[in-house]
Write a structure and sequence with these properties.
By secondary structure, this protein is mostly helical.
Length: 273
């Protein structure tokens, strides 16, 4: 059975041609000290496609780089779609290669969530459907550049999202009583310290800078939730579903924050008080 910890579903910068360092746009903000246009290489991108300040990204003001994960899209484009020929060696491919990154990233993110769903015991009634959708999405990622760029990603995501929502209902049904539905809610800066959010539907919720210290988020659905600067110190995220490493990287936490087993504690989080 596939696992959400599969290396193919995480960025492998050593097998990528620095695509995120070129393809993406960023502007001067709390996440970046300088602006960069799409298609313009970052000033810190080395000749071997490595980052010249990788170990000092946060101190140098590049926090945005530390919270980005392509879910393996970069290396799949570099090594499979373009067969290991980089955009410097074959500049005529650069435009397609860069345009493909957001497309492939979305597909790889879907693969990551579908893979997690197949491992959830409560989702057993949907196992066959999940396996079919997983295989179909993987086939799409293996297409050529033209077919990928012509793909209606939104339409494919709609089917995947519906299946993941059914999975979520089965998993969260373990929590007794009425479960909070805050799907897509604007919870910017919300005071949720110690809140009981067990089994809550927080899909796509805006939890930017929310105070979630000591909150109970066991078995909560956090797919697409914006956790930038959310305070998760002492929170319990045991069994939370569809939570990803980039979401944790964007949040604040400490050694007392309890995490699902497939995720790791970000290095910048504080020790427990």
């Amino acid at each position: 059975m596939p696992q959400p910890t599969d290396p193919a579903l995480r960025a492998d910068c050593g097998a990528c041609f620095g695509l995120c360092c070129v393809a993406l746009t960023f502007s001067v903000s709390a996440d970046f000290p300088v602006a960069k246009k799409a298609g313009e290489p970052c000033r810190h991108l080395g000749t071997g496609f490595g980052c010249g300040i990788h170990d000092d990204l946060r101190p140098r003001g590049y926090a945005g780089c530390t919270v980005y994960d392509c879910f393996g899209a970069g290396q799949k484009i570099s090594q499979h779609t373009f067969g290991g020929r980089d955009w410097r060696e074959a500049p005529e491919s650069a435009g397609q290669m860069f345009a493909l990154l957001p497309v492939m990233r979305q597909l790889q993110e879907m693969l990551r969530h579908l893979t997690e769903a197949t491992t959830l015991p409560r989702a057993r009634p949907l196992r066959a459907d999940l396996a079919r959708e997983l295989a179909a999405t993987e086939r799409l990622t293996l297409g050529d550049a033209d077919s990928l760029l012509a793909l209606d990603v939104a339409a494919h995501r709609q089917g995947v999202s519906a299946l993941l929502a059914r999975t979520s209902e089965l998993v969260r049904a373990q929590v007794p009583g009425k479960r909070k539905n805050r799907r897509g809610a604007d919870l910017f800066g919300a005071r949720l310290k110690g809140a009981d959010l067990r089994g809550a539907d927080l899909r796509g919720a805006y939890l930017i800078a929310a105070d979630l210290r000591g909150a109970d988020l066991r078995l909560a659905d956090l797919i697409g939730a914006d956790l930038r600067d959310a305070d998760l110190r002492g929170a319990d995220l045991t069994g939370a579903i569809f939570l990803t490493q980039p979401q944790l990287q964007a949040a604040k936490g400490d050694a007392a924050t309890r995490l699902p087993g497939s995720l790791v504690r970000p290095a910048h989080w504080q020790p427990a008080h």
